């Protein structure tokens, strides 16, 4: 979808041009992504990346990728404004810790499943006929190796 | 730890001042974090955030937080250079997907543990004396609720 169209008419400059106090041209690179009713979006990316860098980064991308690029830059800029030391790298670090914790819990749960299967198997071998039903119910080998 | 000290002597400008072709002053804000032998670090943050923004962000932080801030900015800038559309937000999205997948696997493994405990309990009730040993081995209630 071509995104160079202006939604807000020639009389209403985009949020970027308004902040930069410049004329908002018909082909303004910011206008499709920074509407005048969302001034905070441009304010954040301007503070963190600078208008000139945002302009350059958008110009270097094909139009169909610019909306995603703006969204990710706004996300990154907001994270940096909230946390000037770690920005969104703080979120990455916290997600990595969460993954590590989940992997540990998953390994423990899977080990417990294996352990219980082994015990069930061993109990059924010892108990003989009385245990057949239990082993059958447990459906050995079907879900054990699917973990 | 005070980090204003220069490691590379007055004759060797830091990587930032070298790239910006300016005199590297004794109290240069970039010098402690952008040594001349790592020029790519400053090149990335300069391309993505702009030297003036990096300078401003560092000045707004106490000295003991600046090294972490530089590391996170270098990480973020490298991610944006590698992936100009999503930058490190791409990594966040991928980590979130990984967490979702691990949570699903963990829920399945924990459900299997609960299910096996229930079957074990039910089998032991049906099989009577012959099953006592198995129930005892399974150590009901100890690890089931710790998942």
Question: Can you characterise this structure?
Answer:
The structure is a homodimer of 147-residue chains. Chain A is mainly α. The first copy, chain A, has 2 domains: 68 residues, no CATH class; 48 residues, no CATH class. In chain A, 63% of the residues lie in helices and 0% in strands. Chain A has 6 helices and no strands. Chain A is elongated and about 85 Å long. The two termini of chain A are 44 Å apart. Chains A and B meet through helix 3, helix 4, helix 5 and helix 6 of A and helix 3, helix 4, helix 5 and helix 6 of B.
How are the SSEs placed, and which strands pair?
The structure is a homodimer of 147-residue chains.
Chain A (H helix, E strand, L loop, with lengths): L14 H6 L18 H10 L2 H9 L3 H20 L4 H41 L4 H7 L9
Helix pairs in contact in A: 2-4, 5-6
Sum this structure up briefly:
Chains A, B: This is LOB domain-containing protein. By secondary structure, the first copy, chain A, is an all-alpha fold.
What is the straight-line distance between the termini of chain A? Answer: 44 Å
Cα Rg of chain A: 29 Å
Q: Helix/strand-derived class of chain A? A: mainly alpha
Taking pLDDT < 50 over at least 5 consecutive residues as the criterion, the unreliable ranges of chain A are 1-5, 129-147
What kind of assembly state do the chains in view correspond to? homodimer
Query: Using CB atoms under 8 Å apart, which protein chain pair has the greatest interface?
Result: A-B, 55 and 56 residues
- The domain count of chain A comes to 2
Order of helices and strands of chain A: HHHHHH
The largest pleated sheet of chain A is described as:
none
Would you tell me the overall average pLDDT of chain A?
A: 84
Q: Tell me the fraction of residues in β-strands of chain A, as a range.
A: under 5%
The total of helices of chain A stands at 6
Outline of chain A, from the CA principal axes? elongated
Helix content of chain A: 55-70%
Number of strands of chain A: 0
